[in-house]
């Protein structure tokens, strides 16, 4: 009887434990990887690494005359980036712009899990590409009023926590950290309305401002 009462007392806590969703290799990821794996022999001076926010940038046209590789994959997370670093290292880029994390937040992954992945990503890149300049970019802000995605609403605090961890990792690895909120955030700390239609992704014109901002920061 005592054992039964003890078990019943534990029942409310049983549902609190959540399994970490580490999946990433959906059909879209796999299709992009088939493409990227065919391009990894092409040298790149600059490589942009991340999710859909990176993938949607027309970096080759924005940086004419430069050897640019776009390694963004829509929907990707820190697990997915970690799994595809061999191809990034194979290209031996001179410079990498890293931006990842918002899809981890969308899944409500524990921040410490994402930051542990982030640490592993930076360890792998710095060891595999000792001569490459790795530029760590913060997770972009969200615009709550424009967000149609319920899974991202009310998560500005998670963006803040993620970025606090990312800046510490950049310092730990002695890497350049760029606070993109300087460009993309409004006075309330949200993604500027003129830069987005859905509160998370950037409109095409925003990428022009992004590149120009990177140039003012002497990163391009």
From TrEMBL:
Secretion signal span: 1-19
Coiled coil: none
Record-annotated SGNH hydrolase-type esterase domain positions: 48-202
Keywords tagged on the record: Signal
InterPro entries reported in the protein's UniProt record: Ester_Hydrolysis_Enzymes, SGNH_hydro, SGNH_hydro_sf
A Pfam family this chain is assigned to: Lipase_GDSL_2
PANTHER family: SGNH HYDROLASE-TYPE ESTERASE DOMAIN-CONTAINING PROTEIN, THIOESTERASE 1/PROTEASE 1/LYSOPHOSPHOLIPASE L1
Name used for this protein in its record: GDSL family lipase
Organism of this sequence: Chitinophaga barathri
């Amino acid at each position: 009887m005592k054992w039964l009462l003890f078990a019943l007392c534990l029942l409310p806590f049983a549902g609190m434990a959540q399994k970490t969703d580490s999946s990433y290799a959906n059909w879209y990821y796999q299709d992009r990887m088939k493409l990227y794996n065919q391009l990894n022999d092409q040298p790149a001076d600059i490589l942009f690494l991340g999710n859909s926010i990176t993938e949607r940038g027309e970096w080759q046209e924005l940086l004419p005359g430069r050897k640019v590789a776009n390694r963004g994959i829509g929907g990707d997370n820190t697990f997915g980036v970690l799994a595809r670093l061999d191809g990034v290292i194979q290209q031996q880029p001179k410079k990498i712009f890293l931006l990842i994390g918002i899809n981890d937040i969308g899944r409500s992954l524990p921040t410490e899990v994402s930051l542990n992945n982030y640490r592993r990503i930076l360890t792998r890149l710095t060891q595999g590409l000792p001569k490459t300049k790795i530029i760590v970019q913060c997770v972009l802000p969200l615009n709550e009023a424009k967000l149609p995605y319920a899974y991202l609403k009310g998560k500005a605090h998670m963006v803040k926590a993620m970025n606090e961890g990312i800046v510490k990792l950049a310092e730990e690895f002695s890497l350049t950290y760029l606070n993109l909120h300087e460009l993309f955030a409004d006075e309330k700390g949200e993604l500027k309305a003129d830069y987005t239609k859905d509160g998370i992704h950037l409109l095409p014109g925003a990428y022009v401002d992004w590149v120009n901002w990177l140039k003012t920061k002497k990163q391009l």
